[in-house]
């Protein structure tokens, strides 16, 4: 069984979808979780795939169980967020790509995929790079997001979804930000939001709360970050491959 099961209808036009699979520095997940909370987004749909982990998740102070991969929506900003509370392996991501393809077309969705590239922390803000498929290339350029300064690849579930976009020619955008490979990195997630998601979507996202809660977020995400370090190919990440191999 592979499907997107709508829980609550939301009136959207040509929405952007922000993908938030766990990966290096948990940057995608932190950014996605922040958007859902900041805009009090509606739980729009659940994503079911046979190869996704068969688990149910629950929240602090909330007795309702939910599937681990969900889609949230905000009609005011014409925005969707794909939120995942579990690592997703490449096999599951392949089914997920097939599942989402038809839904993307039916809902006129433009996906924005997020990934971190391991980089030890320095005083300078993390660098952000933009990638694209189809008209996503123009979107990145028009948003003023730099292209990568070296050859590389994106792996994990985000890499599978981007690979599917390349194979099918479906418009997609990829954002890659330098991220701490050892710890949850709210600062890199902030850069993703302010320098990537904002100019691509035209949505102003307050991040003061994200910056103020940096230590709290790190503590809350520490266990998942350790799991992602051990997850290997299940962890979304970008990495350089060099000119010659």
UniProtKB/TrEMBL annotation:
<dbReference type="InterPro" id="IPR038389">
    <property type="entry name" value="PSMG2_sf"/>
</dbReference>
<dbReference type="Pfam" id="PF09754">
    <property type="entry name" value="PAC2"/>
</dbReference>
<dbReference type="GO" id="GO:0000502">
    <property type="term" value="C:proteasome complex"/>
</dbReference>
<feature type="region of interest" description="Disordered">
    <location>
        <begin position="223"/>
        <end position="245"/>
    </location>
</feature>
<keyword id="KW-0647">Proteasome</keyword>
<dbReference type="InterPro" id="IPR019151">
    <property type="entry name" value="Proteasome_assmbl_chaperone_2"/>
</dbReference>
<protein>
    <submittedName>
        <fullName>Proteasome assembly chaperone family protein</fullName>
    </submittedName>
</protein>
């Amino acid at each position: 069984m592979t499907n997107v099961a709508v829980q609550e209808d939301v009136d959207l036009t040509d929405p952007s979808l922000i993908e938030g699979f766990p990966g290096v520095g948990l940057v995608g997940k932190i950014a996605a979780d922040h958007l859902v909370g900041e805009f009090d987004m509606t739980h729009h749909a659940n994503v079911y795939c046979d190869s996704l982990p068969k688990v149910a998740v629950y929240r602090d102070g909330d007795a309702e169980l939910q599937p681990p991969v969900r889609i949230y929506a905000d009609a005011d900003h014409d925005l969707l967020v794909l939120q995942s509370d579990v690592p997703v392996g490449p096999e599951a991501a392949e089914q997920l790509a097939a599942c989402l393809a038809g839904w993307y077309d039916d809902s006129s969705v433009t996906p924005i995929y997020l990934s971190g590239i391991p980089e030890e922390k320095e005083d300078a803000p993390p660098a952000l790079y933009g990638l694209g498929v189809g008209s996503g290339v123009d979107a990145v350029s028009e948003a003023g997001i730099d292209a990568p300064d070296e050859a590389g690849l994106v792996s994990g579930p985000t890499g599978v979804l981007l690979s599917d976009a390349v194979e099918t020619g479906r418009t997609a955008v990829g954002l890659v930000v330098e991220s701490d490979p050892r710890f949850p990195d709210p600062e890199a997630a902030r850069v993703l939001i302010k320098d990537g998601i904002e100019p691509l979507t035209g949505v102003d996202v307050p991040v003061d709360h994200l910056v103020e809660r940096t230590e709290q977020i790190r503590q809350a995400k520490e266990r998942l970050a350790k799991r992602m370090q051990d997850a290997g190919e299940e962890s979304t990440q970008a990495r350089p491959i060099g000119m010659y191999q």
